[in-house]
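Lab channel / #folding
Pinned by the channel admin:
"Please post every new chain as: sequence first, then the structure tokens as a reply. Keep commentary short and put observations after the output so the thread stays searchable."

First post following the new format, from NK:
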Amino acid sequence: MGTKREPTARQLRLAVELRRLREAAGFSSREAAAMLGVNSVQISQIEAGTSGVSEQRLRRMAGNYACPDHELIDALAAVASDRTQGWWEEYRGRLPTPFLDLPELEHHATYRWDVEFLHVPGLLQTADYARRLFSYVNPEFSGSDVDLWVEHRMKRRVIIERAEPVPYEAVIHEAALRIRVGDRPTARGQLNRVLELSESDHVTVRVIPFDLDDFGGAGSAMVYAGGPVPKLDTVVRDGPNGPVYIDAEAQLSRYRTLFRRVEAASLEPGRSRDFIHRLAKEL
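Reply from TO:
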């Protein structure tokens, strides 16, 4: 018998939202199971993401909990019925699961915001830049390991390069643009790539210059992925063992506010392009 695959972040999010609905309604898992006509173990498995749930059963559960948020229920039903096997599945068993959860999250995102202070955001990176970055940060990687990670990162760019791209906004600190990850040609190529993408209608790039007064947001690096409804938004931050996914409603509200503050502090897009162009000419 094969080993059961661990649930993805998307499956876990569905499970967490169902648990939140039950708890908001004031029911125990035993009571929820009785209303659904199943045993409490099944409810526990659904809420742990170790057992799937059909759209029909999900809607019955939401009805039992008297959830008034029909847009949320429709969005959760869409997640429950989704059977997408995206390109990231070819990396399963080759890369850690949290790094496969990210492209799945991006694939389903309705918009994407990035805030970066030390490196150019992954979706804007060139292959040369990414290769130098992975090689330096992971000195134990073999050449084939680095190639695999670079290939994966380059494929993630599909969300801003496909026919119907995701609206994307990046706020990048001057430090990330000036740090030379690689030699001068690599740095110049990376800046030119950011400039090229910033000309796209669906891509907005803003820069926070060093000389900005009264800026205390250097710890606010984030990836913010918009969901089909605001309650299903997700924040991703770097952790010691890989990406950390944040979905509590109070935290999401905090990061929305934080992004808007950082955005407001940055140069407007036209001035940001001029700024990046000057940096590229210096190399």
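NK: The first strand starts at residue 111 and ends at 116.
TO: also worth noting, The chain is about 50% helix and 10% strand.
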